[in-house]
């Protein structure tokens, strides 16, 4: 028989760690620019955005194949169309639209896809609301001991 899951143990910890590493590496590759080889007379810079896109697509495929969810705050930093990391001023432009409803519009400079996020007063993501946060068994035991 298989092992029983202990309370407080995270299922698929290695996969989440791998996805986290790929996301961090993709963010780093988006911000880094490398110099072209010195044998050319022009001083051109080469960015590593294609490598960053590959890391994000790999991260998404791991999540899809293993049926793991990506946190909504991380999803908001990814372009749905081209899988690039959306960093303001580097790979995305940010505008605030006031009509018909106030929203922050983030546009990917790589593919031109725009996404809107509501900016109403008191607005929270579903995952950030206190009633939706899962408490572990240790938290419950500590509250009973007080």
Mind sketching the topology for me?
Layout: H1 13-31, E1 33-35, E2 45-47, H2 49-66, H3 72-75, E3 92-97, E4 103-108, E5 114-118, H4 137-145
Protein name: Rpr2-domain-containing protein
Keywords: Metal-binding, tRNA processing, Zinc
Family: Belongs to the eukaryotic/archaeal RNase P protein component 4 family.
Give a verbal description of the structure.
With 146 residues, the protein is an alpha+beta fold. The chain has one domain. The protein contains 4 helices and 5 strands. It has helices at residues 13-31, 49-66, 72-75, 137-145, and strands at residues 33-35, 45-47, 92-97, 103-108, 114-118. The strands form 2 sheets. Strands 3-4-5 form a 3-stranded antiparallel sheet, with no helix packed on it. Belongs to the eukaryotic/archaeal RNase P protein component 4 family. GO terms for molecular function: metal ion binding.
